[in-house]
From TrEMBL:
Region (Disordered), start-end ranges: 386-420
Keywords, alphabetical: Hydrolase, Metal-binding, Nuclease, Nucleus
Subcellular location: Nucleus
Biased amino acid composition, Acidic residues: 386-401
Entry's transmembrane regions: none
Residue stretches making up the DDE Tnp4 domain: 213-370
Record lineage: Eukaryota, Fungi, Fungi incertae sedis, Mucoromycota, Mucoromycotina
Superkingdom assignment: Eukaryota
InterPro entries: HARBI1-like, HARBI1_dom
Family according to the record: Belongs to the HARBI1 family.
Pfam family of the protein (one): DDE_Tnp_4
Full protein name: DDE Tnp4 domain-containing protein
GO molecular function: hydrolase activity; metal ion binding; nuclease activity
Amino acid sequence: MPKVSVRQKKIATLQEKVQYNRREIAKRIASAPEEEWDSVVDKSIDAMIFDESFLELSQVLSSRYLPTGQRNNTNNTRISPNTFDYDAFISDEEKFAQTVRMTRENFDSLVNELKDHEVYQSKGLRPQSDFKVQIALVLDRIGSRGIGNSVGRLARSYGVSEGSVVKFTKRFFEAVVSLQTKYLSWPTDEEKTEIKSVNAEKTGFKDCIGIVDGMTADLAWKPSERAKLFLSGKEKYSLQSISICDQNKKIRYLETGFYGSRHDSEVYSDVDICKHPAKYFSGNEYLLGDSKYILTEQIITPFNNPYNMDPDKKRFNRYHDSMRETIDQTFSILKKRFQSLCELPLQIKNMTTDITFAQQWILVCVLLHNRLITLGGADIDLEENNSEQVVEEESGDDDNDSETHQLGVAPRHQIRCRQK
């Protein structure tokens, strides 16, 4: 019986993978609802063109011999024949910043802050990959979208296996999440005094301590379980978050992992700050929220019916809009820097572990955003902004007769009077 070469085995394995992937894509297209068909087809075409197994098969078929680094690779992991040149990588400051989404100085300080974390301490005989390369790879991953953050692309670019890309990501997430209390915290009394002073001088909202809004992170693929729960009003599968930012565009409160089908005000009713306001507010303190929220003592919303409104209310709304621009800008900066938030490269298969990983992904991006705000490195020139367009929705809550709504009417009236 003729001996089968390593190259022939590799080709057979890759052909089998390509055929399997094509069958899965065909099933996905066949089962797509009519209203999603165009989107599914577009994504499926991209998936076929950039299929990692197909690209690798093409590479193997184009050469008579396997690359040296792959000849003894028996566990189907990708081993690059090239060694990643870190010195060359950091030599081009502009390209480096666009890749890791921050300046060299801020990258070095992040490396120093994380290097002693236990996940970067080798426990076996085999040393880990250079932790600076691990961190750069994950920053590249969360800073890219679409094919840019694919595991295969990153494996080829950094000269590691695809399994290592996943491992590096989990390590980095664990290390960064350990910094949560340092970089994501509710304002102290001293900070509140400063925030309120700035807001009062700016627009007359003297007791405003933040701006609240929902942030959507679309999912690249339809969840395999309970998909309708994730379908947003924009007909995209997504996860919802509730965020509160201050006047410096720093996020001071975040709860994430809610189904995309849920309305902002509905999600807010389930978060801790709504259930236990006394932990967060004192005196007459409040947040500003758009018309999707219900007017309460803690959330001051704009007046509705702009075509039948007296001048004082119009002035109030104008100031209110100018304040709320802060959170729109915050989300824009966040998603411009970490573009994976525009479309998380995840498919929800397990309602517990996969959602937890997605929550970690979002939290890590927010923590890094806040860290850069704190260090003063949030304004470097990055690539084009792919952030979502914010669409205002009228809730019509001026006609709301609920008890909580009525409690918010008097504070809003007092603010309007002070702005005259």
